[in-house]
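Our collaborator T.R. sent over the components below with a one-line note: 'Predict the complex.' Nothing else. No constraints on interfaces, no templates requested, no preferences about which chain binds where. So this is a plain run: every listed entity goes in together, and whatever single assembly comes back becomes the starting point for the next discussion.
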Amino acid sequence: MIHLDELNSPQREAVVTTDGPLLVLAGAGSGKTRVITYRIAHLIDRGVRPDDILAVSFTNKAADEMRQRVDKLAGRLARRCTLSTFHALGLQILKAEKAALGLPSGFTIYDASDQLGTVKEILRRLYQSDDDRRFDAKSVLFRISRAKNAFVGPEEFAEQFTDEDHEYDVTAAEVYPQYQEALKSFHALDFDDLICETVRLLDRDEAVRERWANRFRYVMVDEYQDTNRAQSLLLNHLVRASNNVCVVGDDDQSIYGWRGAEAGHILEFDKHFPGAKIVKLEENYRSTPHILDAANAVIAHNTKRHDKRLWTARPARDKLQLVACEDAEGEAEFVAGEIEALCATRGFRPGDFAVLYRSNVQSRPIEEALRAASLSYKMIGGQAFFERKEVKDAIAYLKLALHPRDEISLRRVINYPARGIGPTTIERIAQAATQHGLPLFDGCQKAHEIAADALADRNRNALASFCDLVENGRALIASAQGGTHPGGLKEAARAYLMASGLQDDLQAAAPTPLAAQKKLTNLEGFLTSLERFEQREGRDLGAFLHRISLDTKDDDEGHDQSDQVTLVTLHGAKGLEFPVVFLVGMEEELLPHKRTLYPDGPDVLDANPDLGEERRLLYVGITRARELLYLTRARQRSSRASARPRSPSRFLEEIPPHLYDARDAAMPSSVATPEDEEAFARAALAKLLKMTS
DNA sequence: AACTTGTCAATTTTT
DNA sequence: TTGACAAGTT
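Returned assembly:
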């Protein structure tokens, strides 16, 4: 039994309003996750079957956290609720309905690099003889992905962009249908498809539609401001019958508009779900009053938002610190020095600090300064475990054994480790396969029949032994899944990968023995995670591969010492909190970012740029801080080779001056007046002029 | 097949 | 200044 008196009054209202549409506007630090978990527990208390409850979030991390807290509150019963990400939910539906989907033998999930490979392949084919048309595959893929997020299919997309519009839009319109066709023939779905194809399936198949409309009676969505059109359509299908939909989010923290999130969903929720109740959570349990006042002041400059104002019962503490530094290095040294000082004088630990920046390049000088100061740090958003090359190669081998039609995986490993199947051979066999209407792998198997004269004996033999390798791997895995292989899937996979020569190559090709050891350890870690999956969820390699495509857990959770300074982008910081936060690079062209100010190239200033999302980024950054907040900037910054003067971010002017101390990194711990600042700037300018003349 | 040289661009990123 | 990537060289 949960205790509703542990909640404040709007929180309680959000928890007990169980039926009908409900929008919970949860300001930063207002106990959002608490409301969701209490709400679930309360539903169960009231006798709702856990099977009827669904809570969707965007990240695995959020879903895991929800799971833990619900388990703690509601105990064993809660195990049966579905707490999932949008993508995992889509996958669950597609798998459950695979008969209706028309992919009975299963499918591979393509990640960003697989997608990119597919687009590159298509671009090559389209413009192979045309030297002037070298399109950046990333930009093309970005447009396709954006279309999918908006639930715009290839035909509809093509209608929007005829001839002379935007070059990349025209190209994307040309590539998009071919891309979809390629994925289909590879038996592959990309991340976006996990949502889009689910919606398409629900749209076209009435029986499936009815099944899922009635599957859940109570649906909750976390971080609702981040939903894109496709996700919103999926949600509609799921709540059609019950109309019990509770969405939780904060329009002021909508920072993913650029990848298709539509803040309109949260702004117009009551139009979309008539009769919706709206509850605002404005009491903040995280930050001091000065920090909240600054956040409120900044965000008030945005129009088109739900009116909200964060407040706290906490007493006032330190003012914000606005610090001007000489250059990026000076800024980094200031941050490192301040961390050391605060640890020494005020009892903070390195783990209490976070350095937040707009773009990843800014982390470099910070890292160097922290290293120089012997402060250990962790970067959030580094390379994920399953994205390391050696692990990706292993995955490609396994995917190929399961899905020989997966051409991207095939191309990835067909000549890695090198086995004498070079680009020419691949192109010839690909051509022959196309002529005979065969998938590439089948073409390789039948090389001696369909391309006998096009290829040398040597090449044909290499192809044959590669195909044998994969076929043997397939047999090994099949026997492991049937339970007849000693050591199970893990050992079957190991034997297959060993036969592929992957391990030997890692050993041989590494620049140092240490590097080789590290890679082999990563590979072993991969096999261990397969073993764990096998024990917990059963011997199903396909299910394992799906799982790891959706998981982005990195491997350093083990040696995750908590006493490290956190380095993270403003985007990556959403949902986190720290006693002390440094927001670095508070300058024009960094925040707001150059690309927002000049969307059409460096020379074309947008007369009226939409700075709302940049401002929300700052808002997110400010509201991460519990006790102390530093806003730092550099007077000059070297871009490429030369130092360029920088102006303070226009957003700084939106913070009322009584909330901060302005100071100068060159005059430590003194409070600089605006006059001091100006004098210093003049001196710096004079120095600069003397240097250049 | 491995190595070198040249060119071009350089936000944010989960799943 | 870095880095990714493609084309050219050995």
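Summary for T.R.: Chain A has a mean pLDDT of 89.
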